[in-house]
Amino acid sequence: MISLETKISDKTFSNCIMNASGVRCMTLEDLSNLSSSAAGTWITKSCTLSPREGNPSPRYVDLKLGSINSMGLPNLGFDFYLDYVLEQHKSGNDAIFFSVAGLTLEDNLQMLTRIQNSDFQGLVELNLSCPNIPGKPQTGYDFERTHEVLNEIFSFYTKPLGVKLPPYFDMVHFEMMSEILNQYPIRFVTCINSVGNALYIEDESVVIKPKGGFGGIGGAYVKPTALANVRMFYKLLRKDITVIGCGGVETGRDVFEHILCGASMVQTGTLLMKEDTGVFSRLITELKEIMNLKGYKTLEDFKGKLIEL
Ligand code: RRO
User: Fold this and answer.
1) Which of 16, 130, 191, 261 is catalytic?
2) Domain spans, the chain
3) What is the pLDDT of residues 184-228, one digit of tens each?
4) Closest by alpha carbon to 67, among 270, 280, 231?
5) How far is CA 239 from CA 173, 189, 257, 260, 264, in A?
6) Which residues are near ligand 1 (CB < 6 Å)?
7) Tell me, which fold does domain 6-54+72-192+220-301 have in CATH?
C-alpha cells in the first residue's frame, strides 16, 4: 500500500495535492467542487477586507506553456470566506487553508485579529506576493517591510500561519528571506506565486487588458524556478517550517520533483484552471505509479532527498 499522507503544522492530510489559492476557489460553488474532489485539502481565494471586482477582462489567458493573469484580487470579501471556513469547522473540517491578502498592513491585522478571535482552527496562508494590484508592491520583495509585517502579526497572532512567497532569483535573497522567516513561529511557506509582471504577445498585441498586458506567469514556464525556491527554502528554513510547492505541476512526475526538493504538499494552479478538479485523481494516480516503480511507500521515503552531484 502506498500512502500520500502528509502533515503541516498539527494537521494531517490524506494526500499531498491541493489547489493553488486563486484558482477555482472564489465562490461557494468553486469551494464545494474542491471539497468533493480528490484533493487532499483546499484553500480559499486570497481575500481582502471588502469584496473586490478585480481588474478588467480579459485578465486570465491560457498559454501553450502555462498561463498569464492579472486578476487583481477579485474576491467575495473577508466575511464570506470567514463564514465559509467556520461552516467547515462546524462540520468537523479544520484541515483547510484560508488565504488572506490585505491591501494594507492594517487590513491584514484587522482580518487576522478576527480570525484569532474566531473558532477557526485551520491554517492561514498570508499572501505576501500578489503581483497584480496597480500601485501595491509585492511585500515579499521588500525585506524590511516583510520583517515589520511579521513583527506586527506575531505580536498577537498565535494560530498556525504560513506565508505565500514570490519567486526569488538570487542566493542572497533566499538567505535574507529565510533569516527573517526563521525568527517567527511560521508553520509553513508556499513557494512560488506567479512570476510577476511578465509580458506575452500574440501577433502584434498583448493578450490581457490590465496594466498594458503585464501579468503573472504560471505553468510549465515556471517549474524550474518553483523547484529552486522549494529547494532553497527547504534547506535554509528551520526544520519545523514546512514547505508547500507550487509551480509548473502538469503530471505526477512534477509533483514527485517538488517533493524531492523538499515539499510536503504540492499545489496546482494553471493545470487546475485548464482541466478542472478531475486533475487531482490523475495526479494522485501518476504519483503513486512513480512511487510504486521506485519502491517508495510514503512521501518521507524521498522528501527532500534530491540527489546532488
Ligand atoms: O488575483 C490576482 O491577480 C493574483 C493574486 Br492575489 C496572486 O497572489 N497571484 C496571482 O498570480 N494573481
Assistant:
1) 130
2) 6-54+72-192+220-301
3) 999 999 999 999 999 999 999 999 999 999 999 999 999 999 999
4) 270
5) 19, 12, 19, 16, 12
6) 22, 46, 69-73, 101, 127, 129-132, 193-194, 216
7) TIM Barrel (3.20.20)
